[in-house]
Amino acid sequence: MYQGFWHFSHISYDVFSVEAMMTMQNTFQAQPTDIYLITLPKSGTTWIKAVTYAIVNRERYKNSTLSSHPLLAYNPHKCVPFLETEVFGKTSVYVDGCLPRLFATHIPYTSLPQSILDSGCRIVYMCRNPKDVLVSLFHFTNKLRDKSRCQMAFDEAFEMFSKGIMPYGPYWDHVKGYYNFSLEHQKNILYLTYEDMKEDTVNRVKHIAEFLGYPFTKDEEARGVVGEIVRLCGFKSLSEVNKHGDFREGVPNDAFFREGKVGDWRNHLTDEMTKVLTQITEQKFHGMDISFEVGAHVRN
Ligand SMILES: Nc1ncnc2c1ncn2[C@@H]1O[C@H](COP(=O)(O)OS(=O)(=O)O)[C@@H](OP(=O)(O)O)[C@H]1O
Fold first, then answer.
1. Which of 197, 257, 264, 267 for mutating ligand 1's site (highest number of atoms within 8 Å of CB)?
2. Is there an atom of ligand 1 within 6 Å of 85 CB?
3. Domain range for 252
4. How many domains does the chain contain in total?
5. pLDDT one-digit tens code per residue, 162-197
6. Which of 23, 37, 69, 205 is the most exposed place for a label (fewest CB within 10 A)?
7. pLDDT at site 152
8. How much is the pLDDT for 298?
9. Which of 38, 47, 105 gets mutated to test ligand 1 (max ligand atoms within 8 A of its CB)?
10. What family does this belong to (predicted)?
11. The predicted structure's pLDDT at residue 259
């Protein structure tokens, strides 16, 4: 645990380790044009990476046939790198000196490199109903090939999650950290939920584009560019592209695409588990204008 949050150790995950993050805290230099996509694991990282990549690079690929778009060939995690992997030299496929630099990270607010906060760059934060995060994380870890390290029963996973133990957790503190930051810095951070994005993808995509300074023109809207991006980045399209192969050793591409639905927790949590997580969430988010109910919009 470091600065109130759980992290991997160097032995478990070198570039994502707490040691790597601590090094970066002091040395990483953000640029004002940078864009950071910040999430907790299993909160929509892959989706927001795809959407943002498609928005920001749409001019670049506008003449390419649909089949040559990078998102139809590569996992979105290859198109938008994690900050940690980039800083520690494991470059991704599509980071080739283009501006803006597009990074994703799970680093909690309290440990984010200061230069990111000082640079005035744009941050998109996406969170998701904790119950669905737990379920998604449970399935993901059980899909990893290194079974000895990750296998656990659902009630064990629940126990750990509700105690705050997950990578970059506690869940509630992570969400709250960025929520509080967003109250003071609405120009710099867009706070989204997975549920809102699911419910009204077209308008959310437009909103993200505007926030990032890449608004769709009337002509683009008339040509259906927004709809194309929504389809390209939709669960159906991405899960098809990523049906085979590995993202990295032991992590199959398809592990990032399971159901892509809101509310699958209802198929996993007992009434008692539901009660516990509801209580913790109500208590931790007391006074915050945040809801994961479909139809309830988070501040934007
Ligand atoms: N395009 C798209 N649209 C909607 N939903 C999507 C999409 N891509 C991935 N997913 C679902 O997101 C869940 C994985 O979360 P993350 O992408 O945050 O995982 S990770 O942190 O990058 O490992 C995981 O959710 P669950 O299906 O509930 O497990 C994925 O299925």
1. 257
2. no
3. 18-129+169-260
4. 1
5. 999 999 999 999 999 999 999 999 999 999 999 999
6. 23
7. 79
8. 45
9. 47
10. Belongs to the sulfotransferase 1 family.
11. 96
Domain assignment present for 73 = yes
Q: Is 43 in the pocket of ligand 1 (CB under 6 A)?
A: yes
pLDDT on residue 1: 95
Residues of the chain with pLDDT under 50: 297-300
Instruction: Indicate whether residue 108 lines ligand 1 (CB < 6 A).
Output: no
Residue 139 annotated to the active site: no
Residue 182's nearest CA partner among 118, 112, 109 is: 109
Predicted pLDDT of residue 169: 97
CA of 235 to the centre of ligand 1 (A): 8
Q: Is the CB of 204 under 6 A from ligand 1?
A: no
160 part of a folded domain: no
The per-residue pLDDT for 258 is: 97
pLDDT for 61: 85
Instruction: Kindly report the CATH number assigned to the domain that includes residue 90.
Output: 3.40.50.300
Q: Is residue 274 part of a domain?
A: no
What does the chain look like in DSSP terms, one character per residue?
Answer: -BTTB--B-TTT-STTBHHHHHHHHHH----TT-EEEEE-TTSSHHHHHHHHHHHHTTTTTTTS-GGGSGGGTS-HHHHS-BHHHHHTT---TT-SS-SS-EEEE---GGGS-HHHHHHT-EEEEEE--HHHHHHHHHHHHHHSS-HHHH---HHHHHHHHHTT-STT--HHHHHHHHHHHHHH-TTTEEEEEHHHHHHTHHHHHHHHHHHTT-PPPHHHHHTTHHHHHHHHTSHHHHHHHTSSSEEETTEEGGGG-S---S-GGGGT--HHHHHHHHHHHHHHTTT-----STTPPPP-
Measured CA to CA, the distance from residue 3 to residue 220 in angstroms comes to: 45
pLDDT of residue 156: 93
